[in-house]
Specification:
Strand order of the largest sheet: 1-2-3-4
Structural class: mainly beta
Shape: globular
Order of helices and strands: EEEEEEEEEEEEEEEEHEEEEEEEEE
Distance between the termini: 35 Å
Strand content: over 45%
Helix content: under 10%
Number of helices: 1
Radius of gyration: 21 Å
Oligomer: single chain
Length: about 260
């Protein structure tokens, strides 16, 4: 389902439970098998794995000095599909756009409703420009000063092509560049402009389930495999979805030959 890393420790949630991956060693930490997404909080002597599922929040606490493992489930009145941890608080999200704010012990602090309308869904939650931000079927929203704000100043820049949909499925901020799985294609947003080239072939015709920044690379996890963008700020003025087999220079003209 998902992966999270803290202080060099990598944890993975799956249909078989929660595992820690260390080199070639894979260790089962807990048999909880229904966590859709997880995050890890480093609390010094302990590390806390926070996950979301049909019931709400689930906590697994690992003592770094012993083998002690404890777990707690907190039942909310909504099924949660994604979460983010930011500024010492946990943010959970339901598919219908209910946003919950919890403290690190799971006590509810606040909740918000995006009022998406019938048939529209919330897709992902993260942090952008210092605010909790939610990607939905109808654009980006942020929680700013305890109020829901639709980011029309950003959404208007994403109107690409003839498709009126504004589906923000996944997004991740990497070196001040926002990479977005938007209307089923990868695009890059630098705060002022949206670039869809040269990213057309990343996950083409498939679902991108996660975007992750690591070691100056951007990793895209899709249904068919993993895609790696080795240079985060990679950009070209022109991109051709063509296999160029030959180039001919004649006076002031450059002629390309190929197929595609």
């Amino acid at each position: 389902f998902s992966l999270s890393e803290s202080n060099g420790r990598i944890f993975v949630s799956s249909r078989l439970g929660i595992y820690e991956v260390s080199g070639e060693n894979i260790t089962l930490i807990h048999d909880k098998d229904d966590l859709r997404n997880i995050r890890v909080v480093d609390l010094g002597a302990t590390q806390k794995i926070v996950g979301v599922n049909e019931k709400g929040l689930f906590f697994i606490e690992l003592n770094n000095n012993t083998t002690s493992i404890t777990s707690t489930e907190i039942d909310t009145d909504k099924s949660l599909i994604d979460l983010e941890i930011y500024d010492h608080t946990i943010w959970g999200m339901s598919r219908r756009g209910d946003i919950f704010q919890f403290d690190l012990e799971g006590k509810e602090i606040n909740r918000f409703d995006l009022n998406l309308g019938e048939g529209y869904m919330a897709r992902s939650i993260g942090v952008y420009a210092g605010n909790i931000t939610i990607g939905t079927d109808v654009g980006l929203f942020s929680i700013i000063e305890d109020k829901v704000q639709k980011r029309e100043e950003i959404n208007s820049l994403f109107e690409l092509g003839e498709n009126d949909a504004q589906q923000f499925f996944r997004f991740e901020l990497c070196n001040e560049q926002l990479y977005v799985f938007y209307n089923r294609q990868i695009v890059r947003f630098d705060g002022e402009e949206v670039f869809d080239s040269p990213y057309q072939l990343i996950g083409e015709q498939e679902e991108i389930n996660t975007i992750h920044c690591m070691n100056d690379h951007v990793w895209f996890g899709g249904n068919a495999g993993v895609y790696i963008l080795e240079k985060i700020n990679w950009d070209y003025e022109n991109d051709f979805k063509t296999n160029i087999t030959n180039v001919y220079l004649e006076n002031d003209s450059l002629i390309y030959g190929g197929f595609g």
